[in-house]
Design goal:
The structure is a homotetramer. Chain A is an alpha/beta fold. Chain A has 13 helices and 14 strands. In chain A, helix 1 packs across helix 13. Chain A is globular. At the B-C interface, helix 11 of B face helix 11 of C. Chains A, B, C, D: Belongs to the aspartate-semialdehyde dehydrogenase family.
């Protein structure tokens, strides 16, 4: 069938929802046909619901501007209007959890950006290059809930994306990582809109992001986990200690990483080779949003920089620079990724592309 | 004698030089009577030499505006016009080294902000709260050079100041520190003027500062060293690994620190007590620029922040927040200091106050 | 009586309320003894009500930190606890109007920062240097409402303060101004907290501030009006056309002004003389917050600049630079004032000082 | 002939030079085959000459990275290596003037971004939509100098571009403009690299740009001039008064404009219609860099904004918002253009495209 898959966006008026709509504008497989948000926006044309606060580039994509916004709390409204949904809901964790389940129960798969279901045991938390095999738990998830076609898949916290692929590449190449100390300098778009007040971001940084460090330290281990008996068993390593700070940057999280290998220690040359040759399932499947090179290594002494490097590989690469020895651990480096592309909406779209390619959207 | 000591400022037109002039405006002991800079400025009234680029607050201090700028390369010009000098010279390292020695040879003590003499064996690199005892090498320095009244004392790199006092406090309390991983987020004023282009600091950070990480990792050990046989013998610990980044902040360096103790591990409560009760010689001597509390601990979850906390204790405190366990090392915390006050000019002035109080400026 | 006057702050947890509390910390005449805010904060200690969001410098003034926040909607709570109040209320215009009247009716004078009563006919909108004579309408106001001791006095919009004193100085010197075109570049603190999102203020400006241009164009004429028969009769000139923009600056509004004189045209030298010699009642009365020089003229080609010049004269001066001929009108210049000091809280305090000095707080 | 025209870039290592190289990366007509800069860079591979300071996106275009940089002062080096040059020279005005003439004398046309030849009587200062007819003076220019194939064409100051097309559209529609008061908020990229120090652009604006106001006020009249007897005769109107300020924005100049018509006054509706239907020769010729809509009108109350709107129509549109009556003149509006695309390199490329389409590059 040549027609595109019909897609809904939940939380369509928020920053991540808008980003989904923008990034899906000319998507080869998916087409936004349904938008839902809070009751306050329900009933309005999308263009009126985001009037004076369209955040992504100059214009709302033409096909979406005139869609009527529905109430995201009413999952039945979506029936027949879209085949699966991207969830960019912004509400309480328990509410999101219940609502995502309600969509799944109606037979509508949910590809979620929210943190609510990240720790649900049978919900895969996907970085397609790393843990595509976690898709295997979806069958168990469906069975457990008695869901027929619907299911839930999530993506991890945006700040992790900044360094998980290079870590995975090293582990996979036979160099397990034991411990890491990470400091992140995170962009304000990560907090949504209105998000961080300008009063806090002019001539200032804020050395704290609520809940971020805990997420970072924990989610890492689930992402690197293995599927056993229909469940994801977390990895034990690496142990991560992170400090997350907010800096006056629009898009692009930067991570300063020091790490210690568990046993063998590759040379800097080997590491660079491992990173630049890193490819995985999304590249093999040639998924539309997959970066050709998931990891890009730069040699300038002062890179990566958010404004210059965030758009590398359509905003889907992890850009690394300053690889050098660490005199406390083994190596240190600086890593960067686009938090609202790789780290949020485009990462979610890549998840959906993987699900589609693996047949999870057949027969919807 | 009630009259103030006459002071010269070398490199008086640069940002640190201007900061010295501003901070000495109403100093109880010192009075700026001599300003020197590059030959390009020599012969001009100071106010004309810095016309349209006075950087510190709205106005040039009245007593200095009309001084004639002299050529800093000619140390003999300073004779009779000032009793000691602050060096904020901006030129090649070897040139500065030779020039500071030339002033000392003329009997003019040099209290320097420059990095040129930081590794000269018999030159003390002072943080008065930590290593006042290093003043003992000055006698050796004079003897070695055959200098009568002149000598050189320096201060360390500004970024170190952000966390050296808390480390010293812990060591002194019986908890030696073995290893530290530090990431700094440094203010642009640290690069002088014009310094970092705005093109690099709008919607951006730069994860690199030339030479800074090396300085940070090494200077730490000299500061914590001991005087033996008229020389400073460096400490062996802590081993420091640092990543230094530049962020869009005017003043105030922030450091994210993870550290491991060598043997005993104090509780978080003990650490806070050690820090808040930390006092040293500058406090005992009641030096004019000494902070009453060199270390200030904050309990808000999102502090310290540069714009809000940098002026704590006249810009001379190290402000610490977010003290918490580290799951890789023992503890982590965020620390902040004012890089052009504690970390540069006011730190230099405190050094001079210590020297004065200890009699090093007698009989000039 | 030597004791200070007891003062309440309504809207004490917002940005302007906090600024009042900070600026009154060591005020010679007034002492904050009462703080009130929304019901959400009522009952908490002030320090807890603003926990993690104290915005002005590092610490809450000691005397206020432990005050219990009362519900600002209940004017009777203030009885006996303070003699007059500063209103920094943030709610709907009609609610503020009713609430300020309720306080006045209880015998508590209200010195307001809010816009609600700016166009109430018998409420003076004060810039003490300009229209101290408008105090004369207070007697009429009290009579009209049957208020005994209470009354309301307000201050104008912050952006006007940036250029009203220089305009008034010219008019008063015999050079009435006919027309003005003004573009303002306004600081984000003018929008309160959280106020303008950082997403809008990084690598961006916003050429619109809701309602600001209309206020600017109208309020000017009331400020310059005359009292006739107990009422303020607005001036007819100057006609003002303004464009108000928001820029990434913490404090300090800048105005670019082109103006045309009504008849006689002073030389640039005369204008400078008029401005630098401008003094008025606050200076004659030596009010504690009055600037010695309400207008300061700078000659550097690139000044005034917000970060460098906003603190001039304790943040109470209008700082002018770039005075030059205009080839469309007569002259143009750039003018700057501190929007949260002169333009908000300290301007309000100066109003209260004028009221006190003129006997309006006697017998409270 | 299907091969592309070979192009040189003078001043290739500066910000505008880099922008030219990036924008010509996949140009359908032109190909960069020659790069020249100061003697300091001469002899180096281009990628080494801009090492650690490549400013435009992440990578140097592949075809240019390995070109050897030549000394721009030696025009003979360019012979045979390129057919015409873009001049983005950064040196003294008289030097540029002489050097551009030297290239022209060698038969190499110069399409210049520099201001040196803007006031040369027989050099056209082109905004292709407005004054394509000024190309007629080139014949005279060649004759006067005795140049065979070479000639010089320039573009105006970037800040003018922000509002010249809408003004021209109105004039052309029969509504001549008499007077304008303009305040610009200009991006820092306009000052090149390193350009404006970050110390001046954090929590600050600078209300002055050297020479900019004079250029703005004068160049306007040449652009709108007519060709008579082989020379450009300047227009007499509009009289412009401008204030130019620098704000912390990377790219995108904003202009706040108030204007008075000379006689007839169109309605706001008519004006919008004039603007949105504005087309000219570049659109008719379908030049590769011509915007389909040179003027774009937005209706949101808070637009245009630099970060959101600068890329409109590939960065070649003038984006207008906030069209409304002015109570001093007739109308006011806010206008925005991309200063390093429309206002610099891409504007220069459009000039070259016009020259090519009109046959000025035939037989080179």
């Amino acid at each position: 069938m040549s027609a595109k898959i019909k897609v809904g966006v939940l939380g369509a008026t928020g920053m991540v929802g808008q980003r989904y709509i923008k990034l899906l504008e000319n998507h080869p497989w998916f087409e936004v046909t349904y938008v839902a948000a809070s009751p306050r926006s329900a009933g309005k044309a999308y263009k009126d619901a985001v009037k004076n606060r369209w955040l992504i580039g100059e214009n709302i994509p033409a096909g979406v501007a005139d869609l009527t916004v529905e109430d995201a709390n009413d999952e039945k409204k979506a029936l027949g209007k879209c085949q699966f949904v991207f969830s960019a809901l912004e509400m309480g964790k328990e509410e999101i959890k219940a609502l995502e389940a309600a969509y799944a129960a109606e037979g509508i798969p949910v590809v979620s950006n929210a943190s609510a279901n990240r720790w649900t045991e049978d919900v895969p938390m996907l970085v397609p290059e790393i843990n595509y095999s976690h898709l295997d738990v979806i069958a168990e998830q469906k069975k457990h809930h008695g869901w027929d076609k619907g299911f839930i898949a999530v993506k991890p916290n945006c700040s992790l994306q900044t360094y998980m692929m290079p870590i995975h590449a090293l582990i996979q190449a036979g160099y397990p990582v034991k411990r890491m100390v990470v400091t992140t300098l995170q962009a304000t778009s990560g907090a949504g809109y209105p998000g961080v007040p300008s009063f806090d971001m002019i001539d200032n940084i804020v050395p704290f992001i609520g809940g971020e460090e805990e997420k970072t330290e924990k989610e890492c281990l689930k992402i690197l986990g293995k599927v056993q008996d229909g469940k994801i068993v977390n990895a034990e390593y690496p142990v991560v200690s992170s400090t997350c700070t907010r800096v006056p940057v629009i898009d692009g999280h930067t991570a300063c990483v020091s790490l210690e290998f568990a046993d063998k220690k590759p040379s800097l040359e080997e590491i660079e080779k491992i990173w630049t040759s890193y490819k995985s399932v999304p590249q093999e499947l040639n998924l539309p949003s997959a970066p050709e090179h998931p990891i890009v290594v730069r040699h300038e002494e002062n890179r990566p920089q958010p404004r210059r490097d965030r758009e590398t590989e359509k905003g889907m690469a992890c850009v690394i620079g300053r690889l050098r020895p660490c005199n406390v651990f083994d190596i240190k480096f600086v890593s960067l990724s686009h938090n609202t592309k790789r780290g949020a909406a485009l990462g979610g779209i890549l998840n959906a592309e993987l699900l589609k390619a693996k047949g999870f959207f057949d027969n919807l």
